Amino acid sequence: MILPIFFIFSLIFASSSAAAQDFCVGDLSRSYGPAGYSCKSPSKVTVNDFVFSGLGKAGNTSNIFKASVTPAFAAQFPGVNGLGLSMARMDLAVGGVVPMHSHPGGSKLLLVVQGSILAGFISSNNAVYYKTLYKGDTMVFPLGLLHFQINLGETAAVAFATFSSPSPGLQITSLSLFGNNLLTELVAKTTFVGKAEVERLKSVLGGTNSGVFV
């Protein structure tokens, strides 16, 4: 009786051990796919794959947005590959803005650690939720919804974001609309923004007027 029981437990242990995988450090030399990066060979994994030091340094806010976002996603931090989480640092100079954008691959939890940030999002039924956040405040932004952050304070602001994905993705609405090469007439028709304003926004955000109607 003891031998059959021992044999059964041996099979269970063997199958569970075979199925278990502690981590899947991303192999950045290979292409990113729907399931993330392929796993690096365990023999090539080092402790440095599980450490990222880039969030301790302020980003460069000398740009049109007066803002900087430093990601610690799978592409920068291969140890989070396959673990369902990642982080980023946000620096906002006075008057800085992270314009309306979305993360199609993950929800975001924002923690303000310096200054104050006006943050909000728009639900799929166009309800708006926004509030000024101060040091120690957190706000959650559900997956895929348009949201923004603005520094309306008198000092620089810093926040850290945690995502529910190692690669949450990013689409900035204004850049998607006016930083492209669609015909100005086409952008104007689909956005109900006047042609002259579309041309102005394209010039500011790097868009061109190339392309043809098909």
Automatic annotation (TrEMBL):
Its main location: secreted. Disulfide bonds join 24-39. The keyword Transferase does not apply. It comes from the Eukaryota. CDD domains: cupin_OxOx (cd02241). Keywords: Apoplast, Disulfide bond, Manganese, Metal-binding, Secreted, Signal. Residues 1-20 form the signal peptide. It is found in: Secreted, Extracellular space, Apoplast. GO terms for cellular component: apoplast. GO terms for molecular function: manganese ion binding. Residues 53-199 form the Cupin type-1 domain. Pfam families: Cupin_1 (PF00190). Mn(2+) binds at residues 101, 103, 147. Oxalate binds at residue 103. InterPro entries: Cupin_1, Germin, RmlC-like_jellyroll, RmlC_Cupin_sf. Belongs to the germin family. This is Germin-like protein.
